Amino acid sequence: MDAPNRIKNPLSLSQLRALEAVVRRGSFSAAAKEIGVSQPSISNHVHGLENRFKTRLIAKSGYSVSATPALEALLPKIRAILALTSDLESELLHQKELAAGELRIGYSTYQLAIPRISAFMARHPEITIEARALATSDILDLFDNGDIDIGFVTGREIPAGLDGELLVQTRIVIAAPADHPLASKGAVSWKNVETLPLLQRESSSGTRKMFEAAATVAGIKPKTILALGSWGSIATLIRSGIGVGIAMEAEITDRDGCVAIPIDSPSLIANHYVVWQKDMAGVAAIEAFRASLNPAA
Known about the structure:
This is Transcriptional regulator. By secondary structure, this protein is an alpha/beta fold. It folds into three domains: 60 residues, Winged helix-like DNA-binding domain superfamily/Winged helix DNA-binding domain (Arc Repressor Mutant, subunit A, Orthogonal Bundle), CATH 1.10.10; 107 residues, Periplasmic binding protein-like II (D-Maltodextrin-Binding Protein, domain 2, 3-Layer(aba) Sandwich), CATH 3.40.190; 104 residues, 3-Layer(aba) Sandwich (D-Maltodextrin-Binding Protein, domain 2), CATH 3.40.190.10. The strands form two sheets. Strands 3, 4, 5, 6, 7, 8, 9, 10 and 11 form a nine-stranded mixed beta sheet that branches. Strands 1-2 form a two-stranded antiparallel sheet. Strand 1 and strand 2 form a beta hairpin. The termini are far apart.
């Protein structure tokens, strides 16, 4: 006789893998190729779940498919289960924790991220790292798609749906050559800022969004002459005399040939976080990365 409340025919990992792969790859055939099974097998897994729970999980649009709202809410838990299962399999195969694995990392400020990634790699050379330089909003999009494990992002708070730790709090400032007329004047006013030719990060940058929001509150419209994908590119153009940059003070180093000029605005304080999905916090590689951030703790 069955035990009380025992679920008959519980969900299988094969079903969850099929469902997650279909959403991530955008088609049944691509999911089947990735997993290494036939397309009918993938379809049977997905349609079997939909029929069992009387719920549409996959929406079709032409030749592509996507998650319905019902499935979208469950994807973080499904991905956490699959990641934890992968960890367990790896530990059983290698008979020791962290014998193998990988971390996909996105970072928006290399001066803050790369030293911490390097320290982790030195402690865990067995973990494969894939690191990509991206704007904060692009990193958050990768989390939504399940394409990233850890992100270094800039904002006022930890983004909704994620967990994380504060790495540094820093001012958003003007970056200019040391001989710039404003360099010796201390904090500059918004009226000064409005007259400057500005070099900024792309529109999806967390630093840029915070700066422009503060400028709007101050009633000015910044004159951005060029948007660039990296701080290195901005620093090069600052040195060439094209304009001045907007940056986090923490990302300006001596080798950039720039000085930080504060803006007279108390709201221009940026927080830089390392974040991960809440449901992924128990994955061994992520736990190890978190521990590496505070090695003395």
